[in-house]
Fold this protein.
Amino acid sequence: MNRRAVGYELVVFVTQWVLMLIGFGVLTRFVAPLNLLNPSLSLGLYFDAAAKALIALVLSVTWLFIWDRQVRLYFHRRGK
Amino acid sequence: MPSLGANTVAILIALGSFPVCLALTRFFMYWNSKHGIIGIDVHKLTRPKVPEMVGAAVPITLILFAAIYALTGGASSISLLAYSLVVGLAALVGAVDDRLKMRGIFKPLLTLLCGLPILILGLAFPGQVYASTLHVPLFGGYHLPLIYPLTILVAVSVTSNTVNMLDPLNGSMAGGISIVAGGLLIGSLIIGASSMPIFLYASLMFSLLGFLFYNRFPARAFAGNVGQLSIGASIGALAILGKTEIASIVAIFPNIQNSFFFLSRIRRFTEHRELTSKPTKLLPDGRLADSEDPRAPLTLVRTLLIGRPATENEIVSTIWTLFLTSTSLAVITLLLTGV
């Protein structure tokens, strides 16, 4: 068993956990209160929700991208 | 905060799922063997034949005990019905896949439908099944009246498939998810959650422990897709019904990592059986090693074996340790959320 790999996995989990909390914090504090489109407009509420969902999606993809880079840095080069 | 009595009763009723699941597992081992529903344990030198689809015992137990709990008046029957339907539908998709060997893309698509009972019953009985407010650790929460209902379908599909993908070794899934359920049960008790999620987490944990008795190394029973998908769907449904969404994501970090790196390398939904390049190989001394095949996916098990072969038992213990860590972070997340 590669003990160092287990240690790396734990570092990855803690890092991603912290990043995740920060990401949800950004969504709660900054993105959710935004009024991107006037809700009184026709379908304004739906476009506003869609725009915010898109921001959340971009944040999620960024999070997975960082996770990917971190794991590749630790394991992929060693696996080659 | 609900009285201690309600939670104690919930856990005591859930405790019954351990012997029931144990007995059902034993029954399915016998019945499936007799009817030729058998798989081969490819990570052993002797390649023993092991009864497949025995994990059906878990969803049956979960649904049975949800019904018992509803009859005792422990929680809203509507929520328990939604939970049972989600688990039952995922089990059905898994059973069909076990028997018909569907292409990889069908499982994520069909499991998208498994979240529908929560969505439909939630819309029919507003406020009784789910709340559209996402509670975020440290930062409060926000209301998502449009997005939240849609994410239900995705959540159930993701959890069921990601749990399905991390069961390569004896007891890795059953042990790992029982740690997740146990941790979220403890977290829910600490933050004073209602007795329904406490009951359902306890029921899931005890059922899995019953199944694990026969699934642990050396396995005498395999879960099959029927067990894996329904157990994953149960985690997804519970995250929504129990308001433990973010904590549940954290708890299944090992599953997420495993699935993400599998998909990032293979770039399509496919079955392990269809892979030509395997991530691990069996050595002549019975240990498992990294296959060193650059085309094979970088699975969680493979990362643990880079440069150092290990026995199946050692790898499974390490996976459980990783689940213990992610679940500890999930409990901290629940405490920080404090709902």
